[in-house]
Amino acid sequence: MQELITIAAIYLLGIGFFTWLYLKSERVQIVVNSAPSRSLLLVGWPALLVLLVFEGFDALVDKLERFKNRREEKRRFEDAIARQQEQAKRDKEREKDKYEIIQSSKTLLDGWEHPKLWNEDVRLGKGESNAFNYVFRIRALRDIPRHHVKKGDIGGWIASESNLSREGDAWVADIALVCQKAKVTGDALVCGVAQVFGEATIKDEAVIKDKAAIYGKTTVAGNCVIGEEEEHSGNEVLGGEA
Question: 31-48: per-residue pLDDT in tens?
């Protein structure tokens, strides 16, 4: 309240001072010789004085406070609406998303369920630290009925998001592993203890399961199903065109 009284008093003094200058000084008259300036000086302050006379200073201050509060409430309301819209947008985008990364692990250690990958890595002389020394477990953010996956189900392991497409119904389940530059796209499924690594591509509706290992530059497409302990490497194309 004290601040508002001070501001109003300063405003009145300022209006009176500049009005006096406007009437007494030709220089100032030139500066303020415009319709808005004249309206402010010759109409604004008398209107304020009329309000003070008929409503009293306290009533005027109260109106100013209410006006300020309304502006603040409007701003808070607009901010709340903007936050709700942004959250709705994020939620909608999240509904379209397929999986999130929830856990990381050093996988190339003794006792890991995928010794083939480790042996292949050593054989190729790639024992140095690289992207597939760590893999990440995934969790479904939406249902994938094709593969009997429910929202919230824990999936298999990938080394990076480039290994599993976020489009379509492609999925890595159980403790299956996809790493290095391998890709699972379309509606393909890698499950069981299967391994897909190197530059292999699993696409369309192909299924890699059990203890199968797909690596090198192998492409598995169409409705091809590979399981048990099958291994495919090199430049093979299985189940369809590359």
Answer: 455 555 555 555 555 565
In this structure, are 230 and 118 located in the same domain? yes
Structural domain count of the chain = 2
Q: How confident is the model at residue 17 (pLDDT cuts 50, 70, 90)?
A: low
Q: Is the pLDDT of residue 76 over 50?
A: yes
- Domain end among 51, 66, 94: 94
Please tell me the pTM assigned to this model: 0.57
Residue 144, C-beta contacts closer than 8 angstroms, at least 6 positions apart: 98, 169, 171
The whole domain housing 105 covers 98-238
Do 48 and 121 share a domain, yes or no? no
Q: Distance between CA atoms of 115 and 96, rounded to whole angstroms?
A: 35
The torsion angle over the Cα atoms of residues 205, 210, 216 and 219, rounded to 10 degrees, is -10
